[in-house]
Specification:
Number of domains: 1
Number of strands: 16
Structural class: alpha+beta
Shape: globular
Radius of gyration: 27 Å
Number of helices: 2
Helix content: 10-25%
Amino acid sequence: MSTRVARLSLPFSRNRERDSSMNTIHRSLPILFFAATLSAQTYDKVLLPIQPSTLNGAFNSSWHTLLAERSDDDATVQLKCNVPVCVPLAPHGSVIVQSNASADPAFIYVPSAQAAHVDFALRTVVVSDTARPMMDIPLARAADFTAGVFHLQAIPFNRDYRQSLRIFDLDGMDGASVRVRIFTTGTDPVVDTVLVLHRPSSPDVDGRPGAPAYVAVHNLAQMFPAIGNADLAMIDIEPLTPGVQIWAFVTSTNNATQQFNHFVN
């Protein structure tokens, strides 16, 4: 009797085990599908040329940089980066991020499905004994970068100002090189040099570069005396490393007030 029960119970036990296994498989499929969906999510890259920070300037002045973030999306936007600017953006919400982080550049990653609904504005306030003007710093998205020659046109070289050139790459390729030519009054460049871009120490963001490689040349007229007394200059920047895409801008800073303008094209 007990043997029969044992024999009769064996198929039942196997069926239960089979059913349990099938349930486990069925339940795991949606979980695996959800995980695959997350890993396949795409992101748009936004270049933050300067992180929110505070820098000391001449004549007891300081530059305070902040980042305004705005979303018009109907869902929360989860930004990704490894600097203190990536906070969740509530539906149709906005935040202003102030920080004493490094002034190095960084990448922000925005979910591609929401990227068209997310805007950023980078502002710098110059705090001095006489005024507190606010100025704009440009940001760049992937479409703004080029593998060809990047042109900066009609850059003013008034001697009451100092000009700084900043060049960034799209993929964080440390050691990438670019050719920089500066033209003033003629068709031949007065400056023809090669600059090397370096990526700051910055961990990746889910396998993506956390920062670009870049180079900053401050006070161009001092660095390159051949510019001379030119009032205007044209700057051509050409990637030399295969596959490198670049974006650049120039700031022109007043030596007395520390206020600046920027030139992107």
